[in-house]
Design a protein that fits this description.
The protein contains 12 helices and 11 strands. By secondary structure, the protein is α/β, with parallel strands linked by helices. The chain starts with 5 loop residues before the first strand and ends with a helix. It binds beta-D-ribofuranose and calcium ion.
Length: about 300
């Protein structure tokens, strides 16, 4: 991998779009995927961990270590998985069971080890509930300070997708999200506002399908995932948009503003994004407000490049 590549760790809960995000990273020379860590979210932890390994190994990257992390949210009880990704988190996909175990190191310790031993500051791309990231920041403050930044897929300036107010990754562990947003880390939030502007169409998926082994898997991931997104003209590949922001920062427009996470009972998990600066509070998050239409071709080309 080129010395100029940005070292990244992906913390995830695969998840169809998480799998696409991992492949996008692997196909992009601008980034060097040093580790994948897993959290419970789209499915219980044992499934998300197995799925991360299955995807990496399918594209010949069994050298990337996978560490499992939190199996439940910080404060509230675990919730049953929804049906967006199916019971296994990667339903509808024909991949063999994992041929290796995760490393014995806990996810938050592997993030710390990677951050402190890297030749260049590491960017943490968090595309599941933020439980691991919150624990990492609390347990390893020096390693957290050594990070370049944290790019998350989560939240929304506008509507949610689990409740009218809340996006899934923030809703899945609002207390963890609040900790991350108030941690002083350099946080970029890639929310539903932009992921829903970057819909991957059926036509684009058919063009991707014949372009190799990774492309075929990606098309099958989209085949399943699109069923949860009827009538909007395409499928948001949420998590891949966060990786794309690291690969090509110009692909998103960002606004630096204050964001608060609602941990209360009514709008639990809502991200209150002060775009107009009405609170007068210090900006703490770079919030994505627009996405370049080049995103879909970038994602498809980079995944296809994996062969
Ligand atoms: C987010 O929730 C999960 O279902 C996806 O993997 C993505 O990270 C979108 O709201
Ligand atoms: Ca995810």
């Amino acid at each position: 991998m080129s010395g100029a590549a940005i070292p990244i760790v992906i913390d995830c809960d695969p998840g169809h779009d998480d799998a696409m995000a991992i492949m996008l990273a692997l196909g992009s020379p601008e980034v060097d995927l040093r580790a994948v860590t897993t959290v419970s979210g789209n499915a219980p932890l044992r499934h998300t961990t197995a799925n991360a390994i299955r995807v990496l190994d399918h594209v010949g990257r069994s050298d990337v270590p996978v560490a499992s992390g939190a199996d439940r949210p910080l404060v509230v009880d675990p919730y049953p998985p929804g049906d967006v990704h199916g019971e296994t988190g990667l339903d509808g996909i024909d991949l063999p069971p994992p041929a290796r175990a995760p490393v014995e190191t806990h996810a938050v310790d592997l993030i710390a080890e990677t951050a402190t031993t890297s030749d260049r500051p590491v960017t943490l791309v968090a595309i599941g509930p933020l439980t691991n990231v919150a624990i990492f920041a609390a347990r390893h403050p020096e390693a957290a300070a050594a990070l370049e930044r944290v790019v998350i897929m989560g939240g929304s300036i506008g509507l949610g997708n689990v409740t009218p107010a809340a996006e899934f990754n923030i809703w899945g562990d609002p207390e963890a999200a609040r900790r991350v947003f108030t941690s002083g880390l350099d946080v970029t939030m890639v929310g539903l506002d932009v992921t829903h502007k970057a819909l991957f169409t059926g036509e684009q998926n058919e063009r991707l399908r014949p372009r190799g082994r990774a492309a075929k898997l990606a098309a099958e991931l989209v085949d399943f995932y699109r069923r949860s997104h009827p009538r909007i003209g395409g499928t948001p590949i949420h998590d891949a948009v966060a990786v794309a922001q690291v690969v090509k920062p110009d692909i998103l427009t960002l606004e630096h503003c204050h964001v608060e996470v609602d941990c209360g009972p009514v709008s639990r998990g809502r991200t209150l994004v002060d775009l107009r600066g009405v609170t007068g509070r210090e900006p703490n998050v770079h919030v994505a407000t627009d996405v370049d239409s080049a995103f879909n071709d970038l994602m498809a080309d980079r995944i296809a490049s994996l062969g």
